[in-house]
Amino acid sequence: MHKNSSKKYRPFPPVSLPDRQWPDRVLTRAPVWCSVDLRDGNQALAVPMNVSQKLELFQTLVKIGFKEIEVGFPSASNTEFAFNRRLIEENRAPADVWLQVLVQAREDLIERTVESLAGAKKAIIHLYNSTSPAQRRIVFGMSKREIIQVAARGATWIKERLPRLKGTEVMLQYSPESFSATEVEFAKEISEAVMDIWQPTPKRKMILNLPDTVEVAMPNVYADQIEWVCRNIKNRESLIVSVHTHNDRNTGVAATELGLLAGAERVEGTLFGNGERTGNLDIVTVALNLYQHGIDPRLDFTDLNSIIEVYERCTGMTVPPRQPYAGELVFTAFSGSHQDAIRKGLNEWKNDRQTSWDVPYLTIDPTDIGREYREVIRVNSQSGKGGVAYLLESQFGIELPKEMQREFGPIANDAVDKLGREVSAAELKQMFWREYIERVTPWQLKTFETESKSGVVRCRAKLLRKGKPVEISGEGNGPLAALVHGFGKVGVPRFEITAYSEHALSSGEEAAAIAYIQIKHANGQTRWGAGVDTNIELASVRAVVSALNRS
Ligand code: KIV
Ligand code: ZN
Questions:
Q1: b/e map of 497-521 (b: 16 or more CB within 10 Å)?
Q2: Pocket test for ligand 1, best of 209, 215, 243 (most atoms within 8 A of CB)
Q3: pLDDT tens digit string along 474-533?
Q4: Please, which pLDDT band fits residue 374 given cuts at 50, 70 and 90?
Q5: Which of 191, 219, 357, 395 is buried deepest, with most CB atoms within 10 A?
Q6: What pLDDT, on the 0 to 100 scale, is given for residue 508?
């Protein structure tokens, strides 16, 4: 990198708009959405979609609820032309869906584009030419006047051909491409020149699309540019102002949202932000951001997983794991404190659906878009006892007492840390089994019998101590008290039982009961043990032996 970047790059000139209104506004309804997946998105693929892939994605877009879909650049290739013809001839577009086609300001291309639309029910013809100083100077070598003439000629050639589209409801769209890098005054001038030819009215509006073709400034600057045009252009009421952002500075979503605050009423973008370079605007994110604020987005992502599946298959792209709303990991918490908070939030939500959604760390309910709660919690070395306990309970019905969670949580974390990766619930259960249930040294229980007389319980147990047989007997007011007494008689230092709980294990190979016992030694040290058996009394005896083995 340059030591002094100001020698190579320059700041972006701000728009003069001291009384800007957009910062005080809030969004209250969804914009008109236009998907450009089949055109802008498709142009950015290493291997562009074939006709059948485009058809499948088109159908998915219709199902999501898009009413305006830019289906291609029909004059650019035979495939693009053929695709448009199939949509129309096979009557694939519902009556309320507009087919949008893009075209440059060249007469032969406009001719072919109009041809491709014959028989369409609703069509948007989208004319563009590039307007920024760099494009004018470097790419076209044209003056501002000549660039305006290009747009005006294109607008005229389209207008002249409209009578040929009888039976088609046509809407016209103009984009000063590279708008965000263009002087606002010039963007207004060229747009008005096109308006002079197309003569839009409040009843027959035209779309003025103001693209952030390359994101060159912060999103507030784009908002200023949009508000400036909305306030200064003539006949604003005859226009549908549209935003089309790309994502070069990773703020495409923010630029679109601020652009809407600034007065735009229509949004162009793609599913998951596919598009040239860093991509187009991710429409899924903007729509679900509105949904998160209680605004009906008028796009349906109830089955987001199927949409991802079709998208990935048709485009060959993948949705990254941290993609907002759609990524595999976005409803997963790795940190223990997050897991704990989510668990509490989900419980509150389950118990009191009168309140609105307020679950920490989850901006929306994953199930609203076909994702699952079970994706929320997994365990890695950062997970706290809460996550570990949740997983054991939710997956295996193992309800560790709170205090035991405090003992097992760090043990599990250490083990996961050593593995250096996430662990599954089954692996976590294995850890628990190894730590508590399967310990056989120094003590291993072989048999345990009791008899009771006049309120006194006597026990006899056969055990192995470091592999050598030992028989113990003791008495007390219950089997466990008798066992503790018996251990004392064979020289085990004194200990007492300080906590006990048990429950049935719901399923699994054990089909049994599990008991948890805490013992306290004379020196004050405590240890937990756990035992599993089909007989609840034996489960608790095993739990005592487990606790002793862990001392
Ligand atoms: O990014 C862009 O400017 C475009 C135009 C053709 C609208 O895709
Ligand atoms: Zn674009």
A1: beeeebeebeeeebebbbbbbbbbb
A2: 209
A3: 999 999 999 999 999 999 999 999 999 999 986 555 568 999 999 999 999 999 999 999
A4: low
A5: 191
A6: 56
Q: From the CB of 173, is ligand 1 less than 6 Å away?
A: no
**Closest ligand 1 atom number to CA of residue 36:** 8
pLDDT at 375: 47
User: How many angstroms does the Cα of residue 460 sit away from the middle of ligand 2?
Assistant: 82
pLDDT digits (tens, 9 = 90+) for 406-423: 999 999 988 888 888 888
Residue 426 has pLDDT above 50, yes or no: yes
- Helix 219-232 to helix 184-198 angle, to the nearest 10 degrees? 40
Q: What are the pLDDT digits (tens) for 288-328?
A: 999 999 999 999 999 999 999 999 999 999 999 999 999 99
Å from CA of 281 to ligand 2 middle: 9
- Nearest ligand by distance to the CA of 281: 2
Looking at the CA of residue 268, tell me the nearest atom of ligand 1. Answer: 7
Q: Identify residue 163 by its one-letter amino acid code.
A: P
Closest ligand 1 atom to Cα of 246: 1
Ordered DSSP codes for 348-380: HHHH-TTSPP--TT-SS-GGGGT--GGGTB-B-
